[in-house]
Design brief:
With 105 residues, the protein is mainly β. The protein is built from no helices and seven strands.
Length: 105
């Protein structure tokens, strides 16, 4: 107790072949002093400008692109932190995001 139980250093969810990351937090009675926030950075893997810190509050669902546009990390937590993460993938040739100039964009 009182010492950090862990963290995930800044990364992007690339390399999994996924398009979208979904995280559902399962932490009842989470307090700000428990730490463990998900920190989102401005786009670009090497960008260090913080966009937003999000507490892992119970029943909170986060969705973000699994690309270099969404670098993130989990800050140190002072108690056990529970989450369910799903990476959504598309079949070959699929892109979940419309791109300018494409028929679906």
């Amino acid at each position: 107790p009182g010492q950090s139980r862990g963290r995930y250093l800044r990364h992007c969810d690339t390399g999994r072949g996924s398009e979208l990351t979904a995280i559902l937090y399962l932490n009842e009675d989470w307090q700000s002093e428990d730490g463990g926030n998900l920190r989102l950075y401005e786009p670009g893997f090497h960008n260090t400008q913080v966009k937003l810190d999000i507490a892992p509050a119970f029943n909170r669902l986060l969705l973000f692109w699994a690309t270099e546009e969404c670098p993130h990390e989990v800050l140190p937590t002072m108690r056990d932190r529970f989450a369910m993460t799903i990476w959504y993938r598309c079949s070959l040739g699929c892109s979940a995001r419309a791109e300018p100039g494409r028929p679906d964009g």
